[in-house]
Amino acid sequence: MESIIFEVLNRSNPHVRRALESISLSATISAFIIDMFCTCVSPIAAQLDIPTYYFFTSGACSLAFFLYFPTIHNATTKSFRDMNALLHVPGIPPTSSSDITKPVLDRDTTDYENFLNFAKDLPNSAGIIVNTFESLETRPLKAIREGKCNPGGHTPPVFSIGPLLATEGRQGGGGGGDGINDCLSWLDKQPSKSVVYLCFGSLGLFSIAQLKEIAVGLERSGQRFLWVVRSPPSDDKSKRFLPPTEPDLDSLLPAGFLDRTKDRGLVLKSWAPQVAVLNHESVGGFVTHCGWNSVLEAVCAAVPMVAWPLYAEQKMNRVVLVEDMKVALGMEVAEDDFVVAEEVERQVRELMESEKGGKYGRWLKK
Predict the structure, then answer these.
(1) Residue 297 and residue 304: Cα distance in Å, rounded?
(2) Coiled-coil ranges per the record (predicted)?
(3) What string of DSSP letters covers 102-127?
């Protein structure tokens, strides 16, 4: 998917140039803000003498990696997938080479080249805008600003402008109306800090087998839960960019699960008003895919997490959440990315019942 995005944007270069030239006829462009997929337009802005800023939508921990990426690239001929080693990136905990974002795992791919070009261009920008805040990511921000992530090179100014969170009534995702009211009304009836919330983002799709394991684990845990379920990914590759169909809960979940858990659990189809849910008094834990927006929303709501990364930079986020920030438990995931019911049960119980889960919540409130 990433290579398609890069290619589409690259083909837009002539249109971007014309737009910038047209605007420049009647106004001075003080800043041109782009993201990691738009590196191809950086030379155009430079030719027109327009300052370019990168808006980095993940955290400073991921930014530290990308700034250090060219240093790692120059020090080895191996792919990350084949290193079988810990990477020591300034500002973040030692990270397994296999936990690096999937598109750059293999050195001889177009995705790797595209992301390496982005990493090399970061220091050439007029500045980097990152969705984080100083007290959350003190270490990586300090390492970046001290130039440790780009040794021997220039580091542009870094502006931490987070947390950027969706305000009430402006959350995307396709839900609304009675579904929101039913969800929040159900939470109103639950005891304080008693509900574990499970949601894995708009791209977090599980197989039927994995959904059944989650259901079994939740049922065995005995905990109150609010779980957002999306339909499994389609086998038809032509539909991979289309939103999934509405899930048929009766066919996706174990027989009788909804009836057996109706007094302590609520399963929502596809979407929930996440900011409102996380800030609700009854929610005491969050099983998350570690998407950066979800992380920020949980941190700002002082809700401890179980980290279950699925894609993008989420495995790196898990390392930071579990080992550095200490605000999350780490889900044990098999090599085939499958999680068994026993692990779901164990982690949910520990999050909601143990002193460790409570300690994480108290720390976040500070």
Answers:
(1) 11
(2) none
(3) GGGSSTTSHHHHHHHHHHHHGGGSSE
Identity at 347, one-letter amino acid code: Q
Q: How far apart are CA 192 and CA 68, in angstroms?
A: 43
Tell me the pTM: 0.92
- pLDDT, one tens digit for every residue, the chain (366 residues): 788 999 999 999 999 999 999 999 999 999 999 999 999 999 999 999 999 999 999 999 999 999 999 999 999 999 999 999 999 999 999 999 999 999 999 999 999 999 999 999 999 999 999 999 999 999 999 999 999 999 999 999 999 999 999 876 545 444 444 567 789 999 999 999 999 999 999 889 999 999 999 999 999 999 999 999 999 988 776 666 667 788 999 999 999 999 999 999 999 998 999 999 999 999 999 999 999 999 999 999 999 999 999 999 999 999 999 999 999 999 999 988 999 999 999 999 999 998 888 777 777 877
Q: Which two tokens stand for residue 6?
A: 């890069």
- Give the SS3 label for residue 282: coil
Q: Is the four-CA dihedral 65, 308, 358, 280 of positive or negative sign?
A: positive
C-alpha closest to that of 294 among 275, 276, 280, 313: 275
Q: Tell me whether the omega of the peptide bond preceding residue 163 falls within 30 degrees of 0, making it cis.
A: yes
Rounded-to-integer distance, Cα 238 and Cα 228, Å: 25
What domains are there in the chain, each with its CATH number? 2-160 (3.40.50.2000), 178-365 (3.40.50.2000)
Nearest to 352, CA basis, from 228, 264, 238, 231: 264
Q: How far apart are CA 228 and CA 112, in angstroms?
A: 33
CA 160 to chain CA mean position, Å: 17
Q: How far apart are CA 137 and CA 93, in angstroms?
A: 12
Neighbours of 77 (CB within 10 A): 8
Phi, psi of 188 (to 5 degrees): -60, -25
Place of tokens 């849910």: 277
